[in-house]
Amino acid sequence: MNETNNTDKMFEISVIETVPRVSKIITISCCLAMSILYVSSLYIWNNKHNRDHPATVKRRFLSVSVVMLVAPVFLYSFSSTELMEKVQFNELLGLRWHGLLMAILIPYLLTMLLFLGPLCVELQSESQKMFFDFEFWKSSFKNILWIRNHVMAPLSEEFVFRACMMPLILQSFSPLASVFITPLFFGVAHVHHIIERLTMGMDFTTALIISLSQLAYTTLFGFYSAYLFARTGHFIAPFLVHAFCNHMGLPDLQELWQQQLWKRILLICCYIGGFIGWVLLLNMATLPSVYKNKIFWPRQCELFMNNTLSCTA
Length: 313
Description:
The protein is 65% helix and 5% strand. It has helices at residues 24-41, 54-78, 81-86, 89-92, 100-114, 116-124, 134-140, 144-164, 166-169, 175-188, 193-199, 204-232, 236-248, 253-257, 261-285; strands spanning 7-13, 299-304, 309-312. It is globular. It is an enzyme of class 3 (hydrolase).
C-alpha cells in the first residue's frame, strides 16, 4: 500500500460494470431477435417493385420506423434493474446532452482523416463544390434515394444495431468483446441483399460474391461504429459517421490510377497518411472523458482506504 496517496488499489470501472451481469444467452437472443425483426420488416410488403422504387422505399421507411419503436423495448425489458436505476433510459440509448458537441465534431473529423485519400481524389474533380450549392441540398432532400442512403438507413441501422444492442451486450461482455460481437449481427443483416440481386436476374455466383464483399465491409464498419458508440456514449457519433461513409462509399482506385504519375504518388501518400493518422489518433480522439462518458467504457479508478472511489477516464 502506498501511504503517500493513501490508496489501496487501482482498477478500471464504468457504471455498467457496477451492476449485476445479464445472462449472455439473453443478450445474444435479444440482439438476434432485433436483427431478424429489422430484416423481416423490409420484406413484409407484397411489392413487385425493386428496392429503389419510390413505393418500396417509402414502405420500408415505415417498416424500419416501427422497428425503431420496438427495439428499445428489448433494452428496457432485459436490462439490469440496478442499471436502470443508475442511468436514465435516454442516456443508455446514447441520447444525451453532455459531450454532444464533441461527439458531433471529433468522430466526423476523425473519419474524414481516414478517407483523406478519397477526399483528395474528389478535390481533383472539383466535385466538392456542389456541397456549397444550395440547389444541390434542395434537390437531395427531394430525392428519396438520397434520403434513404444518407438519413434513414444510417438513422435506423445505428439506432437498432448500436443504440439498442450495444447497451445490452455491454451488460454481459467486456467493452472490447462487445465491439467485436455486435457488428456480426449488423454484417449478417446485410446478407439479405442477395435475395434482391437474384430476384433482379443476377446469377448466383456474382450475387454471392457481391453479398460476401458487402458482409465484409459492413462488418468492418460495424466494429468502428460500435467502438465509437461505446467510447463516446453518444448515438450521434456513429450515425453521422455512417452517413458520411455511405456518401463516400468504397474508394475508387480506378479513378486514382487515371491521375498523372506525380499526382498519383501524392494521392497514394494521402491514402496511406490518412490511414496511419486515423490509427494513431483513434484512441486519443475517442477518450471517454472528452464526451463525458461514464456509462459504457471503463475509467481508471482508485479505491481509497475509507472505501471511496476517485475515477478518471
